[in-house]
Design a protein that fits this description.
With 381 residues, the chain is α/β, with parallel strands linked by helices. It has 9 helices and 15 strands. The chain has helices at residues 12-23, 36-46, 55-59, 76-86, 100-112, 127-137, 173-189, 301-319, 338-357; strands at residues 5-8, 28-32, 50-52, 66-69, 89-92, 117-119, 144-152, 193-201, 221-228, 233-239, 247-254, 258-262, 265-269, 277-280, 361-362. Helix 1 packs across helix 8, helix 6 (127-137) crosses helix 7 (173-189) and helix 7 packs across helix 9. The mean pLDDT is 92.
């Protein structure tokens, strides 16, 4: 069971996560913000008793058993690794960090400290994707040959310059949405990328409010191809130049049929049928106007619904144990862990390198063994 949760972050994802945690009955007892003023503002909004701008104050809070990390990616590895070393469970936003080094630091900490260490890849918990995976495992589409993913949405950049505008702080569509897509493709197909070729573009470098010496350097368009380990091919297009609209389609084509998730609805054309049929209709409704859900429109519905289900599963994993901080692995068995996040980071890094080189880049998985204690080594926290 959990005594309480500490949340890192004050942006829209933090507000959504706090609302989701509270909606399933979990207690948020501490909040970190980039400034004391911002932390106080969000803490007051959600009646969180303790707030601070010091990372250690949350990590060392006696009532915090789990930390939920929603701050910018350049801080993920620092907070997650230190939290595990102190004995706190971790639910971390995506991606794992800015590069392979960040992700490896998180993996080493998770290997050394046997605590809950999960990534918030909520699409795995959306019923349509869960059913799609089961159908693929049963062989209903035959051998998987092709995967095609298309995401279209408005700009991820807001009115003010922040980390989302800066590639060096983890901003951009590849990190923000592409990390989820890379993860869900591997989750569905049980295949990992062996080589990739990609293109990243920043078409909008300034706006009416972001101008002068300020320039946007994060990618607003990305497309890439992946050759998967069993021979399947995947194509992904991420386009943030469709204002006022979000659409996401994941298509899996096999030797015997095809499956398609549009939004959170599952369609299929199986067993030689000539037409596509609706297999699962999304019936979950979320009230964007409910208390604490301000800003939830910033997170597309499939991701929002998946996050709620993931958090509900985390709650269940702790409820199955009567001892404080003990947890059961079964409810979160299909969640993405830090090892999954490391693989996603390898793919992201390869897509970036391919965009620079114009060539296919191989994915080299470095299965580095955990050091005796990563926090006693040079460069440790």
């Amino acid at each position: 069971m959990l005594e309480g949760i500490g949340v890192f972050g004050t942006g829209s994802l933090a507000r959504i996560s706090i609302a989701a945690l509270k909606s399933v009955g979990l207690k948020v007892v501490a909040l970190w913000g980039p400034t004391q003023l911002k932390a106080k503002e969000i803490a007051s909004m959600f009646d969180i008793p303790f707030y601070t701008d010091k990372i250690d104050d949350v990590l060392l809070h006696k009532e915090v058993d789990l930390v939920c990390i929603t701050n910018p990616p350049h801080l993920h590895a620092q907070v997650a690794s230190k939290a595990l070393s102190i004995g706190k469970h971790v639910l971390c936003g995506n991606p794992a960090g800015l590069n392979e080094h960040d992700a490896l630091k998180m993996v080493e900490a998770a290997r050394y400290y046997p605590l809950l260490s999960l990534m918030s890849h909520g699409l795995r918990f959306v019923p349509a994707f869960m059913q799609m995976k089961k159908a693929i495992q049963k062989g209903e589409v035959g051998e998987v040959n092709l995967c095609d993913v298309r995401v279209a949405c408005g700009s991820l950049v807001k009115e003010k310059f922040n980390w989302m505008c800066d590639e060096n702080m983890g901003g951009g569509v590849l990190n923000t949405i592409g990390s989820h897509i890379i993860d869900i493709i591997t989750f569905l197909t049980s295949q990992k990328a062996v080589k990739v070729r990609g293109m990243m573009k920043t078409f909008v470098t300034q706006t009416e409010r972001i101008n002068g010496i300020r320039h946007i350097t994060s990618d607003d368009f990305c497309c890439f191809q992946m050759e998967l380990s069993d021979g399947a091919c995947a194509t992904v297009t991420l386009n943030t130049h469709v204002p006022g609209h979000f659409s996401q389609e994941v298509l899996i084509v096999g030797s015997k049929g095809r499956l398609r998730v549009e939004g959170a609805d599952l369609y299929g054309q199986l067993c030689g049928n000539k037409t596509e049929t609706l297999m699962i209709s999304d019936t979950q409704r979320i009230n964007h106007q409910s208390d604490g859900m301000a800003g939830s429109a910033d997170l597309p519905l499939p991701y929002l619904k998946g996050l709620f289900k993931l958090i509900d599963s985390v709650k269940e994993s702790f409820e199955r144990s009567q001892e404080r901080r003990d947890w059961n692995t079964e409810p979160v068995a299909m969640a993405a862990n830090f090892e999954d996040a490391l693989y996603v980071q390898y793919v992201i890094d390869a897509v970036r390198q391919s965009s620079r080189s114009g060539n296919w880049e191989r994915i080299i998985i470095k299965n580095k063994e955990a050091s005796e204690n990563p926090f006693l080594q040079p460069g440790g926290l």
